[in-house]
Amino acid sequence: MPKSVMVYCPKCKKHTEHSVYLYRKGKERAMAEGARRHEEEKRGYGGQKYAELVRTAKTTKKSTIMLKCKVCNFVISKSGIRLRKLELVE
Ligand SMILES: [Zn+2]
Predict the structure, then answer these.
(1) Element at 62 (helix H, strand E)
(2) What is the per-residue pLDDT across 12-36, written as a single tens digit (0 to 9) for each?
(3) How many CB atoms are closer than 10 A to CB 74?
(4) 68 CA distance to ligand 1 centroid (A)?
(5) What is the spatial distance between Cα 74 and Cα 70, in angstroms, rounded to a whole number?
(6) Ligand 1 centre and the CA of 86: distance in Å?
(7) Residue 33 to residue 38: CA distance in whole angstroms
(8) Is the pLDDT of residue 90 over 70?
(9) I need a labelling partner for 48 at 20 to 30 A (CA). Which of 1, 25, 76, 90 fits?
(10) How far is the CA of 44 from the centre of ligand 1 (A)?
(11) How far apart are the first and last CA of the chain?
(12) How many A from CA of 75 to the centre of ligand 1?
């Protein structure tokens, strides 16, 4: 995939140049409400809240491609694209 593409920007309301990059998950906060609740529910007898995934059937993961407008810095995310590896070329 090229490093920059010409696509429609909903904020500029016209086609502009966008830079392409992959979405990367941010760092998880250990003290977030959901994380604290999950930790509490896992305690004691009863085990897991959700079944633990033993082995995956899929060989690839769905990745999210981010397109950032070079004019207004608006970011469009294109999710659900299955690919092994994304190569950014000039
Ligand atoms: Zn824009």
Answers:
(1) strand 61-69
(2) 999 999 999 888 888 988 889 998 9
(3) 15
(4) 8
(5) 8
(6) 24
(7) 9
(8) no
(9) 25
(10) 52
(11) 8
(12) 8
Residue 74 CA to ligand 1 centre (angstroms): 6
pTM over 0.90? The answer is: no
Distance in Å, CA 4 to ligand 1 centroid: 13
Q: What is the structure's pLDDT at 71?
A: 93
Kindly report the backbone phi and psi dihedral angles of residue 82, in degrees, each rounded to the nearest multiple of 5, phi listed first: -85, 120
Ligand 1 centroid to residue 5 C-alpha, Å: 13
From the list 66, 86, 69, the residue with the least C-alpha distance to 77 is 66
d(CA 28, CA 12): 33
